[in-house]
Design a protein that fits this description.
By secondary structure, this protein is of the alpha+beta class. Helices cover 43% and strands 24% of the residues. It has a single domain, classed as Gcn5-related N-acetyltransferase (GNAT) (Aminopeptidase). A 7-stranded mixed sheet has the order 1-2-3-4-5-7-6, with helices on both faces. Helix 1 crosses helix 2 (30-47), helix 2 (30-47) packs antiparallel against helix 3 and helix 3 (73-91) runs antiparallel to helix 4. The chain starts with a strand and ends with a strand.
Length: 184
């Protein structure tokens, strides 16, 4: 049986491992791994703990997946730039950092929140992603958030099917990604 609960600090390492397991490029250099881990997991576990949830397999008490969100784009941009910009420069990713974090800015009026979600291989296609998404949507609605969005690679066919099935139509696109959004 799978249950959804709020993430705890002690879950952070497992969340990072799941993120790496689902990476499009698992053999990337260490500096890029560090950059991606902060961008896609670290920020949220540091500054948005109230918007971090995990799916736990009760049979073995292991984390099967996670969903992490930033509830407000302006707060996110301010906090992440202050916290991580210097580190991104040091790792050699300043331009990518600025491009990645500003992806959401254009859509913030209608979709002020964004999220990252991953389910561990072996647990995928069992409804866990939808359970995590439902928990996050309920959480953000309770906080008065009007809309939720994400950027997903055009090459991620199963991911794009998942978001379409869960009510996240394409609201825009760039060269590599679709921007998907859902009003709450």
């Amino acid at each position: 049986m799978i249950r959804i609960r709020s993430a705890k600090k002690e879950d952070f390492r497992e969340i990072q491992l799941i993120n790496q397991l689902n990476s499009s490029h698992p053999d990337k250099p260490q500096n890029e791994k560090e950059f991606c881990l902060y961008l896609y997991t670290g920020y949220y576990m540091k500054f948005e703990t109230e918007n971090c949830f995990v799916a736990v397999d009760d049979d073995n008490d292991k984390i099967a997946g996670y969903i992490l969100a930033a509830a407000d784009c302006d707060d996110y941009l301010s906090q992440i730039e202050n916290d991580y910009h210097a580190e991104a420069i040091k790792l050699g990713f300043e331009q990518r950092f600025l491009e990645e974090i500003r992806t959401y800015e254009k859509y913030k009026a209608e979709y002020p929140a964004h999220f990252h979600i991953d389910v561990k291989p072996g647990y995928q296609r069992k409804g866990i992603g939808s359970m995590l998404l439902d928990a996050q949507i309920a959480n953000l609605k309770d906080r008065g958030v009007r809309g939720l969005m994400l950027s997903v690679g055009k090459n991620k066919r199963s991911g794009n099917r998942f978001y379409e099935k869960n009510g996240f139509p394409i609201i825009d696109e760039n060269e590599d990604s679709y921007i998907r959004g859902k009003k709450l």
